[in-house]
Every structure is written in structure tokens, then in C-alpha cells.
Hints:
By secondary structure, the chain is α/β, with parallel strands linked by helices. It has three helices and five strands; from the N terminus they run E-H-H-E-H-E-E-E.
Amino acid sequence: MRADDVTFFAGVPTMYRGLLGALDETVGVAALAANLRMAVAGGPALPGELDKQFLERFGVTILEGYGLSETSPFASFSRYGEQPRVGSVGVPIPGVQMRLVEED
């Protein structure tokens, strides 16, 4: 992140947990955070505490989405510029329709 002035970070919750776990007093978090503009997550739901820790360290809220191969790659996503609900997969992206269906 430091060598390439990373501004966009995408990963699954495990990657965010690993990144936060690798931060110690030898890492210039302020320099990393100064470049970072957006962070996104997919895969399993992002735990609220992990989102909170990332926000505290980097000043960036992680946006979450939902998708699968057939939707290349997202079907819904948190809206950029709006405060996301932690644990939500956001809203359908343009061109996607969704509906809730009961199990039966």
C-alpha cells in the first residue's frame, strides 16, 4: 500500500482482518490512510466491529456488495457517498431487479 500509494482497497473480511492485524508501531498508518479513498468488501458479511476498527484506523467506511459469477461481479452494492448500513449488501445496481421471495 505504501509503495504504490494505494487509493482503492478491495477484499473479503479476512483480508481486512489481516491488514488491521499487521499494523503495529512500525507502520505509518497515517501515510497509508492519507492516500486511501475507498474500500470495498464482498464475500461473507463484514462484521460490524471490523468495519468500526477500519474506520478508526483509516478514516474510510468499507462499502459492501453482493454478487456472484453470473452477475459479473455485483448485483447490489452500497452507494458511494451515502452512509452504508453495516452488514447490508446495499441496493441493486443499475440494470438489476431484485425481489424478496418466501421459501415456499
